[in-house]
Amino acid sequence: MQADSPILSVQNLRRDFKMGNEIVHALRGVSFDIHNGEFVTIMGTSGSGKSTMLNILGCMDRPTSGHYILDGEHTETLKRDALAKIRSQKIGFVFQSYNLLSRTSAIENVELPLLYNPNISAAERHHRAVEALKRVGLESRMNHLPNQLSGGQQQRVAIARALVNDPVIILADEATGNLDTRTSYEIMMIFQELNQQGKTIAFVTHEPDIATFSTRTITLRDGLVKKDVMNTSVQDARAALEALPPPEVFDEEEESNEEEKA
Amino acid sequence: MSIFTLIKIAVRALFRNRMRTFLSVLGIVIGVAAVITMVAMGEGSKKSIKEQMTAMGTNAITIMPNQSRRGGVQLDASSSNETLEEEDVIALRNEATYIDAVSPLMTVGGQAIVGNNNSPTSLSGVSADYLKIRNYEIADGVMFDDEADRMAKVCVIGQTVVKNLFPDTDPIGKTIRYKSIPLKVIGTLKAKGSGDFGQDQDDIIFTPYQTVMKRFGATTKIRQILANSIGEGYAAKATEEIMTILKERRNWTKPTDPFRVFTQEEMIQMVTSTSDMLSLVLTAIAGISLLVGGIGIMNIMYVSVTERTKEIGLRMAIGARGRDILLQFLIESILISLLGGAIGIGIGVAASEIVKNVMNWPMSVSVTSIIVSFGVCFATGVFFGWYPARKASRLDPIEALRFE
Question: What residues contact B40, with CB distance under 8 A and at least 6 apart?
Fold first, then answer.
């Protein structure tokens, strides 16, 4: 897989912010490639530049200097609208706080990115949204509103939304940050499954145990790459989930399972 | 994003904040309804004045002494230096080629009495031509003759006067008393109906003008002469000719005209200019309420944009361009204003109908005012929605997503 040309390449990336009279160097020359099919976690403490990195990778921000090539396209010189088009067609976002539209059903939330692609018909939109929800195991909750879903389910809807436009890379920003350990592992399980199906994933986190589920970890510190290591012993999220002590509160499904076993 | 989808999104967003939407719409509704009603009122009064003037005869020309002005104060006709005389009437009748009827008009106020009945009708001293100028027709009997009935104590009366004075008898040959002077009824006029302002065109008594001059006024001065041009397009030529004849009779050399000559068109303009002014002021006031409604929309759109900053950030993050966001909010404000416009037009038209039927005011809802109102609403939506929508479209997705 490493022989492929990279799906994403950052070269000597710098990003400066003006804060009053001071110039803050958030990124000071970061370079790395991500290849098709990789599951990369980007780690770092707060202030390390990982949020800035993610904003640039997500084409929401432009570097002060350096190159960012996504899927063969130089993005550093593109205008706002062109960047929006890249976000619409090549990138899937998963946020820490889910960012689902309230009072809007799960299926409509998933359809949302396709609304901004004029080449996709309403029927196609619906079909793809259903498929994406199936991949995260939520096809039975399509018409639920976000406030009728648990945190984990909301994040799964958000993942479906990130999948629906068939992006070249999924960018996750602390996607398990608001979830308990068990639900976090469930979410990581979905990410691992997607990765095994060939999706490239870049996952920003500051939790080291989350990084163990990925195939590679890039650690940033003070705007520079401090470490970039391949993960030799990738942990299986499903196994980790099963190894957890059983939850104290059973939900109905599990209760009925227990009864069947008994 | 297709326009249909955008409208769907906007409708849903508006529906979510029903109360807020309702209040914004209400602002526009009040504005538009006020404009429609005010315009209907103005148009209605103008139209009814025009109809009345037209009913008087479209080819009528009015000749009056030129009023003298002192320090901008317009003095009344009797203080004019130059007066009209019977000879003027005769000269016009004999010499003018562009007019086919001439009549003085001398009005005397009072009431006509027959036995116990009376009729508070003004007496008009005219010549036989007056019927033609004002489109009256004889119903019964005859019109007096200018030569044979010169100064005769005879009269021709309208149907209202017939009703008032002779409820059950034939008026022809009877005598009425007007200011103690007996006048013999020799004819009656066909009913013409009432004008829109309720003044009765059948409440009229005609008598030879010489009779009024000698017996009622003891004067040789004529207040007003009416003439009838020979056709629609001849009013201007007739006016010019009349002025020439009147000046020649007097060897007039002064630069100012001794008399004022109005065509019916000019009379209509004169009479309607006041009502035009009034309706303009009323419409302007109504327009201000529409403006206030628009500002209401702008305010609510700003609130909406701020409240939905996070949604805007998300939409941008997943691929919405600034234009998509701009349109989304713009369509919302346009929908508010068009909805307000549609309801406002409905209420305005209904209010006009109610005023027309209940208060008997002349109201005329013009199609133009409806189309213009709708257009103005659309423009209001675009104008007042533009800045909030542009603010939304220019948000930075990173900042917007971070907004709490």
Answer: B348, B349, B352, B363, B364, B365, B366, B369
